Structures are given as structure tokens and as C-alpha cells.
Amino acid sequence: MFSPDILDIITNYRTCEFTTLSKSNRPSAHPVTPWYRDGMAHILVTTSLGFPQKIYNIRRNPKVSLLFSNPTASGITSGAIVAIQGDAQLDENLARVEDLEDYWRQLYRWQPVSKAYSQTALSRYLFDWYYMRVRIYITPRRLFYWATGDCSQNPETITFS
Known about the structure:
By secondary structure, the chain is of the alpha+beta class. 23% of the residues lie in helices and 35% in strands.
């Protein structure tokens, strides 16, 4: 679905800004850790039950965006920026740590200290509000790519059907 350069950004940038629209139609942006593998039809982000605003916003309006603009710790030095507009779909079935093994494995690789907080059944029990996640599947509709990171230039634009 994505060119190698764009795929590199989507799979290696540690976080992106996930934007939903609030009740008053104002943008509401939150940092999230996305999960994507080449060939998937969607990009996965999750939200904790303890922070449900993204869920409420998506139920009202499924149009969302992802902005990959910070390459910190990704190993990518080009400074490239990717913005994706798409449609979000909520999976209302709560996901536990065991239901998102690939997602958590990636997160632990990027943030090794965070693994200590979920290794025991007791810690998962005490922080169940954090580890019980709602999966949000984003289907890309349009992508903007600034290869050099210079947003004063017109981006390459890709439209998905």
C-alpha cells in the first residue's frame, strides 16, 4: 500500500499525532503509538478505557488523521513527514495484553522500561484501566508526504480508494 520510504516512517516513528473531531467539530490531537505491517488494510492505534475521549469522538465522526512528524529514536534522518487522512473503525471488544501481543512487543522494544509495569498479573490487575484497550482501525483515504520535511513545499499526495 505504501512506498518503501513512507512504510519506513509509518513503521519506525515511535509516535504520531492522532486527531479526531470533538463534539464542537474542533480538532483534538493525542500522541499514540501506531502499529502497521506491510500489506495490512489499516493502521492500528489503541486507546485505554481510562482515556475514552477518542472513542466518543470517533463514534460521532469517524474521520481522523495521523501525523508522523517526529523521527526521534526512529533511526530515520531525513526529517520526512507523513500525514494520513482516513476513516476510523472502533472494535468495541476490549483487548487485553494477550489480545495485542504484536503491538505490546513493539512497544516494549521501543520503551523497554514500560515492560516492568505489565509483567505480573498483579500489575495488570491494578492498572487494568490502562491495559484494557479499545482497538481503532484507520483505513487510509489520502496521504501527504514531505520527503525533506519542508512543509512550505507542496507534498506528494496519494489517494486510496
